Amino acid sequence: QWLKIYDNQPIKSILADKYAVRKWVAEKIGDKYLIPLLGVWNSYEEIDFSLLPNNFVLKCTHGSGMNIIVNDKSQLNHSEVKRKINQWMSVNYAYRSGFEMHYFDIVPKIIVEKYLESENGEDLRDYKVFVFNGKVKLIQVDIDRHHIHKRNLYTPEWEYVDCSILYPSAPNMIIEEPACLKEMIALAEILGEKFIHVRVDFYIWKGQIYFGEMTFTHGSGTEEFKPEEYELVMGDWMELQKGE
Description:
Elements: H1 2-6, H2 10-15, H3 20-29, E1 37-41, E2 56-60, E3 67-70, H4 78-89, E4 110-114, E5 126-132, E6 135-143, E7 150-154, E8 160-161, E9 164-165, H5 181-191, E10 197-205, E11 208-215, E12 225-226, H6 229-237
Antiparallel strand pairs: 1-4, 2-3, 2-4, 5-6, 5-10, 6-7, 7-8, 9-12, 10-11
């Protein structure tokens, strides 16, 4: 909550914008880590769906959770999707879930990205890397997030952390250390080197790391930790005098 009020840097508005951040990330680590972009528009009416592949991901660029996975565009309910997109486009996300003011100046757009489909048909694992003052301290792995959502936490050395954030953990589920873990950590530290705290999200698809997004206020700072002492641990990782 302190960071929301006292560390509201203008650059955060650019990096929280799911379209604008792509240019910055490409300059920092290279465009090979970007999920292929299939288009950007100012309104749903501008989208020519005949030019899109059969499956893709629709996203609004100015907030969180504004995504629609399209597995088969021939089955797309355009009236329902249009209603949902237009509703999202009308929202200033800064006021939606706890005064995250770095979202205030983002001009809403719609983007479509390539759908990275997992080989086993399950949701692609989402690796959320928590960076504090340029150093990775924690990695959250979201599992089957659209069905039986679980979250496991790991140290940078891939040791299981017996803690849950909002969603239950799955301690008996063996999640192997990614072969590209060191590369992922290095990328996160490059992207997060100038900030007191940022969460950098990645996917791994066919052995390749792909950038997801940057989040400066994880869960708007309100997600419950169990056990709650881990909130103090995370607080100790923040060295406020080192922020840019």
